Amino acid sequence: MIRRPVHKNFSLRLDMIALLGVACLGLTGCLTAPARLDRQAAALGLSQFFIAGRGFTHVVYAKGEPCANGRLHVYLEGDGMAWLPGNRIAFDPTPSHSCLLPLMALDPEPSVYLGRPCYHGLAQEPGCRPELWTQARYGETVVASMTAALRRLLRGKPCRPVLIGYSGGGTLAWLIASRLPQTVKGVITLAGNLDVASWTRLHGYTPLTASLDPAQLPPLPSSIFQIHIAGERDDNIPATLIEQQTHRQLNALFLKLPGQSHTCPRKDLWPRILAAIEQVAKKTSPCTS
Length: 289
Prior knowledge:
Blueprint: H1 11-25, H2 33-43, E1 47-52, E2 57-63, E3 73-76, E4 83-84, E5 88-89, H3 100-106, E6 111-114, H4 140-154, E7 162-166, H5 168-179, E8 186-190, H6 196-203, E9 225-231, H7 239-247, E10 252-257, H8 270-283
Parallel strand pairs: 3-6, 3-7, 7-8, 8-9, 9-10
Antiparallel strand pairs: 1-2, 2-6, 4-5
Helix pairs in contact: 4-5
């Protein structure tokens, strides 16, 4: 899923990948990654629509009417297929399968899955460029557009959402919450990348200098509760990195799942995690927007 960034000679590679994608569409039973994700969402009974961010369009998969009961869970996917084998930049970074959508389908609360700019078959949109899913995957352009999309989604609706992000989606959940302190009620990260600089050093990756890093920013306000969940056997984003960043946050809990690697929690565990989220949410003092 993650490869070391490269910065030169990717135009020809992108053209080749684009041609392969066109050829694939002509084969019976060959689906693009966005089409597979759409099919997965439809099989789970989720609806789909698009919403504008800041200069970009975002796909949304929804379960129920957002904020229908004054609540909303917003799910944010990981980095997807930003890189292909051989350190090649992906033409379309959309993952072909989501680990979050099945968890969202189990969630009793109204929920939406908010896609990133240029994902979900939108990589040809004006303004899209490979940096937005590689070096600048957590950069100002991405965070600003996702924040604007969430604002538009919530417009006129009386609820404070809880953001739930997996891996790099946890990074974005934290960064979006930092811009909406009077709006967001909680942040839940699952194997979240909360210290981008330490993560790149750990793996010997090129530093993501065009991205924002939660570890380099002030803690979230205490009005936003946080639960950061790590896998005991996660060798991609080790539990120690997540625990260190949890300790510097306000109103934050750290949970470690025994035997868990760098994947979403098992479906049988998710109802219990949701119950824990609900308990913490009830203890958080309300904040008037």
